[in-house]
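Whether sequence alone determines local backbone shape is best considered at the level of individual chains. For completeness, the protein is quoted in full, as a sequence line and a line of structure tokens:
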Amino acid sequence: MSSEVAERRATVGVKRPTGTPGTTQQRPERPKPPLSSYLGLILVAAAAFAYFWWTREDTSVLFLPLGFTTLWAPQWPLIGFLVMLGVLVFCWFTRTGPMAAFGALTVVIMSYWAGSNIYFIDRVSEVLDRLTSGNTREQLAGYFNPDWNYLFFSNVTGTSRPIWGEWLITLCMAVVATIIGCFIGLLLAMAASPVSSPNKATSQGIKALNSVIRSIPDVAWALLFAAFIGSTAYGYGALAAVLALIMFNIGIVAKLLGESIDAVNPGPIEASDAAGANLLQRDRVAVLPAVMPSFISYSLYVFELNIRASAALGVVGVAGIGGELSRQIGRMSQGYEQVGAILAALIAVVLLVDLLSMWVRRKLL
């Protein structure tokens, strides 16, 4: 018994080799970044502070009492400089590398530069002042007290159409635009990806076309189609909105699905080529089955976007609930409750569509 105790005492203090059971391997501590690099970053922050001071248009200043004297500095450039120093101090204590710290400093500098050029801080201050005014309180009270009778029992302004009929028009526009836009987007995605495209020239040309389609926002498309179609016996609102949503859907589906096609497993494609399949047969057998789950998911996502976008298209006078929302916003002196009812209903419809899309994804995917 005494010999066993002696052996245990003899082995006390002997370190087990790394990797043996019962030992915990500690991660090596990250080395401190070089101090000279951080001093250079502080100089960059000081140069940015000097630039913002020199180009400032706001005249507000901060006074810094030091006991024997009082210093002053421009308010927002000084606050921005302190934020930059705070970011560098945080990066130093977390032992962040110089390049990562420079990236964080660049984000702060670019944010301050962009905000100062659009007078972001001044606009926020004005909004906060307006929130305390009596007129704004009246608007907010109207928004949070929706007029449900208007939503269910009233007609569209200046017509005999019921309000709920505009929701039906909005839903129909979203369905038509989703079906047509996603189908065309699928074809363009197949033609744009090098995996399924006939040749490189076709792929590059379709990619350029997709870029042009995505570069024009949906509201601009609606304005263009409304001006092109003009006034007809049936009106141009719904058709212009559907065409604008179709172009919007084509840009989204062609972009996202094209990237999914680029990442397809090359194994089935190589097998199809080895079996002597032509381009259409290879795309139908090897590419489409692989990207069809992504295509269904993107189509459901686009359908949700169409419900939201149809409300935004009301600013150009298209049909649907967006047009009525635009008209009620135009008479804001007496339409707070009506706008609140439309917005509440819009939130409810979008949530229902989102839940329906989630259910469909679970069943199909």
The longest strand covers residues 61-65. Strands lie at 61-65, 70-74.
